[in-house]
Amino acid sequence: MSEFKEEGFLSTEMVDTAQECRRQHSEWFALCESMNRFSLALASRLVCHPNNRQECLAAALFLRTISIFEGTVVLIERCMLIEAKILLRTLMETLFALRAITLHAEVADEFYGSQYITKLKALRKFMEAHLDLAYFPRRDLTEHGLTERIRELDGLVGSDRTEMRTRDLAEKAGLLDFYNVAYTVLSWTVHSNILDIAGSHMAGQSDSDISGVYLGLQMEKVEQWFLSACECMVVAMQSVNGMFRIGVENEITDYERRYKSRFASYWTAINEQS
To answer: Which of 15, 105, 125, 160 is found 20 to 30 A from 146 (Cα to Cα)?
Structure first.
């Protein structure tokens, strides 16, 4: 088997590492797998009318939350907690949009319309990049074509449309606490902030006494990331269940009880050790 120090997380050694992680946290993995199966079954029951933008966006975003949840669990299993935290932040962003849209039909139109602002900003940056457009085969990727497209998007955007920020969606979703606390901390990881880098890749006595840098397996505090992922999925399930009136409130409440009970047991054990 290839060694971690030679091939990092792509090492075949990670197969045994993943199995050991599953063994140590078997109850969390079992809970996540059960939630995942239930979520996929719930998704299959969402009936979307073709002309109902709120329904279609909600269903699509719910599927996105499921796949990101799955990815987060896979990364935790491979002891890649830094990468799992990055994906977990994406899960929260998706949840903010999903929850806001299921609660407010008008947000679906705002969310859909924000694509024009996103495209407009991207094209303006593209124009500023000083690229040789002759290398691009598409006819519209010329200075004239881009200028025309920017003018067209300007007309679609109008003067009163503003970009929907993540915080705006979180507020409309009633999840500002998620945004102000968990999302903020996870953003340190996404942006490679020193607050995160120092704790994950540096060893030493203090900030001014760094003895070395390293890349290693991340197996500490796994429970808090399981907790965050499960909490996001429960809110996502509650959102689509409420909007589509599926009637599985009791099942979702049971999942909420189970992840909270699992984390409470972990927290009690930590306090007893200290």
So the answer is: 160
